[in-house]
Design goal:
Layout: H1 12-22, E1 27-31, E2 35-36, H2 76-79, H3 82-90, E3 93-96, E4 103-108, H4 111-120, E5 125-128, E6 133-138, E7 144-148, E8 151-154, E9 160-161, H5 175-178, H6 207-222, H7 228-243, H8 251-263, H9 268-281
Antiparallel strand pairs: 1-2, 1-3, 3-9, 4-6, 4-8, 5-6, 7-8
Helix pairs in contact: 6-7, 6-8, 7-9
Length: 284
C-alpha cells in the first residue's frame, strides 16, 4: 500500500505571503526593524543596475528578494523558492507594494494623526498598527513621507507591512489624499543677469515665445519615462540658457517647471538643487 505524501508545513509568514500573492497582492519579506533585506554581494549598492519597477526588472536577474519594494512579486514559484527560503526563515513580517496592488495606504503614526484623518479624510478601510492606523483607499498614486506630522503616503514604489485585512469598506482614493503630496515648490529667485550692453532687445520677442518655451519644457519633463533626474536638470539648463538672462523668467515660470518635475516623483529639494546647479553651470 502506497504511503500518502506528508503535507508540507509552510511557515507562518510564507503562508501569509502565498495567500496574498494568490489574491494579486505583490509581497516581500521584511527582516528585523521592519525593513527589506539588503542587496546581496552581487547586487551591493545596486551595482547590478537595480530593479526600477516590478513589471520591468531591468538588467538585474538576481533571484533573491534583495531589491526592497521592487522585489515584491505575486509569483508563488519565486516566493516559495530556495532563493527566498533563507529570507523567510529570518523574516519578522510580510510587506506588500500598495501601488502595484492598486491601493494607497495612508500611514497614520500616532493618535494625533489618526484624529486629523477622522476630521479631514473620507472614511475607508482601516488597519490598526503599533502606534496608529493604516487607512487604505482603492487607487494608486505617488508615495511620499512626512506629508504632515505623523502621516506618510505609501503607494507606488513603496512597501507597507501587511497587518491584516482591516475593517470597513475600502473607498476610492480621494483628491484630498492626492493633494497631500502636492507641495508648493521652494521659492526661487529669477535670473538677475543684466540686459545686454546698450539695452538690447529681449530675445523672447513676444510673451507667446516665452510661454511656448515653458510649455514645451513642461511637456518634455512629464514625457520622461526614465532618467528623470537627468531630464529635469537638462530641461532646467535649456530653459535658463534661452530665457534666463533678460529678467523675463519669473518665479511663476520656475514653479510650473518644478510642479512638472514633482509629478514625475522629484522632490521640491531636488528641483531647487537642479535649478541652482543649472544656473551655476551657466554662470548666472
Amino acid at each position: 500500500m502506497t504511503q500518502p505524501t506528508p503535507l508540507r508545513r509552510v511557515p507562518g509568514h510564507l503562508s501569509t505571503a502565498l495567500d496574498l500573492a494568490a489574491r494579486g497582492v505583490p509581497v516581500l519579506p521584511l527582516r528585523a526593524g521592519k525593513v527589506p533585506f539588503g542587496n546581496c554581494p552581487t547586487c551591493r549598492d545596486n551595482a547590478c543596475g537595480g530593479r526600477p519597477n516590478m513589471k520591468t526588472p531591468g538588467p538585474c536577474t538576481c533571484p533573491r528578494p534583495c531589491h526592497g519594494w521592487a522585489a515584491a512579486t505575486v509569483n508563488p514559484a519565486v516566493i516559495d523558492s530556495p532563493d527566498w527560503a533563507t529570507a523567510w526563515r529570518q523574516a519578522q513580517a510580510v510587506a506588500f507594494c500598495p501601488g502595484e496592488a492598486g491601493v494607497t495606504v495612508v500611514d497614520l503614526d500616532h493618535a494625533e494623526a489618526v484624529a486629523w484623518a477622522r476630521q479631514a479624510l473620507p472614511a475607508t478601510r482601516t488597519v490598526p498598527t503599533t502606534r496608529g492606523e493604516h487607512w487604505i483607499y482603492r487607487g494608486a498614486m505617488l508615495s511620499a513621507n512626512a506629508v504632515r506630522d505623523g502621516v506618510d503616503i505609501k503607494s507606488a514604489m513603496a512597501y507597507a507591512r501587511w497587518l491584516g485585512p482591516g475593517a470597513g469598506t475600502m473607498t476610492t482614493l480621494p483628491d484630498t489624499v492626492r493633494a497631500l503630496i502636492v507641495k508648493k515648490p521652494a521659492p526661487v529667485r529669477p535670473a538677475t543677469a543684466p540686459m545686454p550692453a546698450g539695452g538690447g532687445e529681449c530675445r523672447h520677442r513676444t510673451p507667446a515665445y516665452l510661454e511656448r518655451g515653458i510649455t514645451m519644457a513642461e511637456q518634455h519633463i512629464t514625457a520622461a519615462t526614465s532618467g528623470v533626474h537627468t531630464t529635469v536638470y537638462r530641461t532646467f539648463l535649456a530653459v535658463l540658457s534661452t530665457h534666463g538672462r533678460c529678467g523675463c523668467l519669473t518665479d511663476t515660470h520656475a514653479a510650473r517647471l518644478f510642479a512638472a518635475a514633482q509629478t514625475k516623483g522629484e522632490t521640491a529639494r531636488h528641483c531647487v538643487d537642479a535649478w541652482s546647479n543649472a544656473r551655476t553651470a551657466l554662470g548666472m
